[in-house]
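Journal club side-thread
Mid-discussion, someone asked how the predicted structure for our own chain would compare to the paper's figures. Pasting it here so we can look after the session.
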Amino acid sequence: MSVDCDWYPKSRAGARILSMETIKHFVLDVDGVLTDGRFYYSAEGKVMKAFGPDDSDALLLLKPYVDICVVTGDRRGFDISKKRIVDDMGLRLELVSTFERVAWMKENGFQLGETIYMGDGIFDAMVFDAVAYGIAPANAFHTTKAKANFVTGVVGGDSAVAEACLHILEKFFTPFDPLHVSVASGEWGSKKPETM
C-alpha cells in the first residue's frame, strides 16, 4: 500500500513519490537532535549532554518499520553518547563527520533514495539534498530548516525525535494510535530492570 506524500526531491530533477516500500532507513544525528545541542564542560573537559524525553519510546515504535542508525561527529563526547544510545537505548551509533555522512551511507549499504535523515547543523542541508527525505528539529540552523521536508515544532532534546518518528509513521507507514499500543516484554513490558 502506498501512502500519498509530497513530491520530492523538490530541488532536483526526476521527482518521485515516496512510499512505505521506499523508506528503509532512518539515520539521525545526536547533538541538537537527540540532545539540546549544548556541551557541558568542566576543567576536565566535556562531562555531560542533555538527552530529552520520549525519543527512546518513539524510536521503539518506529523500529519495526526501518533500520535506525545514530551518527555523531563529536569525537570528544562519543563515550557520553555511547552510554545513552548504545548501552541504554540499544541502538547503533557511528562516529561520522557531517561532511562524510553521504559517502559513509553509500559505503555502508544505505541506499540514499531509501533513507530519511534528521539533522540540525549548518552542514546537514548537504545530507538532506542527497537522501530521500530530510527532517530538522525546530532549533536547526535556518538554512538547514529551509532544505528540510519536515521541521518539528519542538527542539532537539525536547522530544523532537519523538515528533519526527510519529510524523514518519503517519506519512509512510501506519499512524500511531496511543490507545492501541502492543506491550509485550522488554522496554515496555514486565521485564524487571537488572539490579546492581
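Post-session note: Strands lie at 25-29, 40-42, 45-48, 67-72, 92-95, 115-118, 133-136, 150-151.
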